[in-house]
Amino acid sequence: MQYCSQCVYPLVSAVPLNFDEQAVCSGCRVHAQKSKINWAQREAWLRELADEYRQPTGENYDCIIPVSGGKDSWFQTYYIKEVLGLNPLLVTYNGNNYLDVGLRNLKRMREVFGVDHLFFTPNPTTLKKLNRLCFKKMGDMNWHAHAGIFTYPVQIAVQHNIPLIVWGEHGFMDLGGMFSMNDLIEMTAKFRLEHAQRGYDWFDMLDAANPEIAEGISARDMQWCRYPSDDALDDVGVRGIYLGNFVDWDANQQTELMKKLGFEEAPFEFERTYRRMSNLDDMHENGMHDYLKFIKFGYGRCSDHVCKDIRSGKMTREAGIELVLRYDHVKSADLLRWLDYVGMSEAEFDAIADTFRDPRVWNRNADGLWEKDNLSGQRSAYPVPTLSQSNVNWDHFRKKPVPE
Predict the structure, then answer these.
(1) 219 and 279 share a domain?
(2) Residue 128: inside a domain, yes or no?
């Protein structure tokens, strides 16, 4: 394992990145570009773009904002509505895993900013099938959530003739430096399929594509996951921009501002990261979905958060390493909720998860334990623990009501 000399990212990563001759990752290099950008000019560009899509007669919405109700959704909605003066339609894909605090934020957000909101939930039976299938197929039970958020808002844009879609930050550029800040990258069908959806599309979920692990998923079940045709996109002129290209994006500062307007952090500590402001729309994002990233690549959500905070000057690398060694390997209790949700045993989960370990990261030692190189410079073994239901606070994981 080789780690960035400035942040804590490993070279073998879940996001596209590379290291230069100084062992600095492309994510750190691209972040450094922000200090050289004329943000006043970028804002002026954004205002010109907003005026281009503004509906002067109010006959339609000015844009769509895909939202989960999290800190970034709040800031996107605040900036588009309050700063630029546009009239957005909020669109949510609901993966059926909201935390209570996440649902409160979602409902409060549309009330605070006075916006219309479309909240879509696929058939929960299909979602459970997709959870099981995608875990076995690619080691990602949340594939449907990535597919949903990058597909359903685009469907709505075509159906309602709303050309402009405003996303937050480009996650792969922010984390790994997949693109330069000077590229002004926009959302594409290519990125959706090859990266957000790991190369899989809706038809890869059907029984014909999965003869040994078929779940009985039909084309009818996957209507929400069908990306519009090129002709349909061209007819409407659909365009997806990233607000992070035009605004000096700082999640910590933005969250503090949104908290003053009513955004609520998680009222409890997460088991796998120190942040309480992120990923409140899905109880497994900070938990077992991310634990699978550790199983595959040897790092997790805490590393993501530490890298962001090191780059922004909020944390030293030494302090970040301590947090990574504390959190990244933890097998979190939300697994028990997920096992009950899909009808699987913990032993079966562990056996399947092990098949996705990257051999560049992991090997078995003489005792049969999985081991890898750590940020501390040591090679450490990681026994796979078994969770106990008696130690779980089930209040975090009970069934959540759909917002009114």
Answers:
(1) no
(2) yes
Q: Which amino acid is at 366?
A: A
Same domain, 229 and 296: no
Q: Strands of 96-198 (E only): list them.
A: 116-120, 164-167
Residues 141-168: tens digit of each pLDDT = 999 999 999 999 999 999 999 999 999 9
Is 259 within a domain?
A: no
Backbone phi, then psi, for 332, in 5-degree steps? -85, 155
Q: What token pair was written down for 162?
A: 């709303």
In the chain, % helix, strand, coil (3-state, to 5) comes to 50, 10, 45
d(CA 156, CA 154): 5
* Residues 46 and 110 placed together within one structural domain of the fold: yes
User: What are the tokens at 369?
Assistant: 């334990």
* Within a domain: 346: yes
Edge-first strand order for the sheet with 363-364 is: 363-364, 370-373, 379-382
pLDDT in tens, 198-214: 999 999 999 999 999 99
Q: Write out the two tokens for 96.
A: 């059926």
Position 261 in a domain: no
* Rounded distance between C-alpha atoms, residue 112 and residue 387, angstroms: 40
**By residue range, what is the domain housing residue 314?**
270-396
| Residue 97 and residue 220 in one domain | yes
Domain count, the chain: 2
Q: Cα(380)–Cα(299) distance, rounded to whole angstroms? A: 13
Q: Using CA atoms, how far apart are residues 355 and 295, in angstroms rounded to an integer? A: 9
Q: pTM of this prediction?
A: 0.96
Instruction: Give the domain CATH number at 51.
Output: 3.40.50.620
CA distance 3 to 25: 8
Q: Which amino acid is at 118?
A: L
C-alpha–C-alpha distance, residues 150 and 144, integer Å: 10
User: Which segments within 94-206 are labelled E, that is strand?
Assistant: 116-120, 164-167
